[in-house]
Design brief:
364 residues; alpha+beta; eight-stranded mixed sheet; 12 helices
């Protein structure tokens, strides 16, 4: 029997179908700017020996929960998770490296000549508060070198990223760089760091009081004003490096100097994901021509990365896979006033065109 109802269908309001917060449409000129950047980045990457890879936007939740570490914002607060009808727990990828290492293991790339050098481009998703240069759907161009512990791989990642950014108009770049050691020297450092912060626990912000228990390395990454004075006196990872890590870092710096890449050693830079070891870096644009008396805004990181020798084991690999990588935040590049749009190959000026006059000509 049909049930009669007088209920009218709900009227859809404009705000009911608006694009989700922190996500947006990319149209026309801006679309071509993204495509032009990707094509130039891919061209430079291929020149240096990187080959393309594309991983799924959806990954199993364990790819990230096992690799990113407890106490990291991406894992604990920012992942878009869903449960499928079949009962699988999936995640919209919040970053690229863990998925690429999963692909490396799953596709047996250990059997290929090492190192395996890969580039990738695409959207990533983080449920964070949208702000300057930070969106919930973000686009990144990433580079990974898997299967080598050599310091020249770290330098090659930085070299390729700075060259891509230079081609996109960024001439005044600086590499913030640090070493956070490996599993041999990290444990002693973490103990010293926790002991130091426990003495100052009353002065810390609520997040840092929690980080002492869950992820102490992130203490050095805190931006809260309450923690800055404490941070100044904190022990730093670079002062606790073992001989092998110190030698590795020295070599990376020598390569940067030889290539005349501007850098600054930032002892508090940590890149707070659990899989990072040894080299960590961020690439920033230095402000120029700022009038006297005008406050310089904090520089946005255009890209960053580091070495992740511990990642493969956290994803179930029986063997360590020494690896290093980095990613460029393409949205920040495109939105920057410094950005020089690169014309994609799809845009070609016509040599000849026809003008139709009248219906018969239009039919032709």
């Amino acid at each position: 029997n049909k049930i009669m109802t007088t209920e009218k269908p709900k009227k859809i309001r404009e705000e009911d179908i608006a694009s989700p917060k922190g996500m947006r449409d990319i149209l026309d000129k801006e679309y071509y700017a993204y495509q032009g950047f990707f094509e130039k980045a891919a061209e430079i990457s291929a020149y240096y020996g990187f080959r393309p890879i594309e991983t799924p936007i959806l990954e199993r939740e364990a790819v990230f929960t096992s690799s990113l570490g407890v106490g990291t914002d991406i894992r604990d607060k920012e992942m878009y998770t869903l449960k499928t009808k079949g009962g699988d727990h999936l995640v919209m990828r919040p970053e690229g490296t863990a998925g690429i290492m999963r692909a490396y293991i799953e596709n047996g790339m250990q059997a290929l000549p090492q190192p395996v050098m890969l580039y990738n481009y695409g959207p990533y998703f983080r449920h964070e508060n949208p702000q300057r240069g930070r969106l919930r759907e973000l686009r990144q161009f990433g580079l990974e070198i898997l299967g080598t512990p050599k310091s020249i791989a770290d330098a090659l990642i930085i070299r390729t990223m700075t060259l891509i950014l230079d081609e996109a108009g960024f001439k005044n770049l600086s590499v913030e760089i640090n070493s956070i050691g490996d599993k041999e020297c990290r444990s002693g450092y973490m103990r010293d760091l926790v002991n130091y912060y426990k003495k100052h626990i009353a002065e810390l912000c609520p997040n840092c009081k929690e980080r002492i228990k869950t992820n102490p390395l992130r203490l050095l990454d805190c931006k809260d004003d309450r923690c800055q004075d404490v941070k100044v006196g904190a022990p730093t990872p670079i002062d606790s490096l073992c001989n092998d890590c110190r030698h590795h870092f020295k070599e990376v710096i020598e390569y940067l100097e030889e290539m005349k890449i501007s850098y600054r050693i930032n002892k508090n830079l940590v890149r707070g994901l659990d899989y990072y070891t040894r080299t960590v870096f961020e690439i920033i644009e230095l402000e120029t021509n700022v009038p006297e008396g005008v406050e310089i805004p904090a520089p946005l990181s255009l890209g960053g990365g580091g070495r992740y020798d511990l990642l493969a084991k956290s994803l179930g690999s029986k063997k360590d896979v020494p690896a290093v990588g980095g990613a460029i935040g393409v949205d920040r590049v495109i939105m920057s006033p410094t950005h020089k749009p690169l014309s994609p190959r799809i845009l070609k000026k016509p040599k000849v065109y026809f003008i139709q006059l009248g219906n018969e000509a239009k039919l032709k």
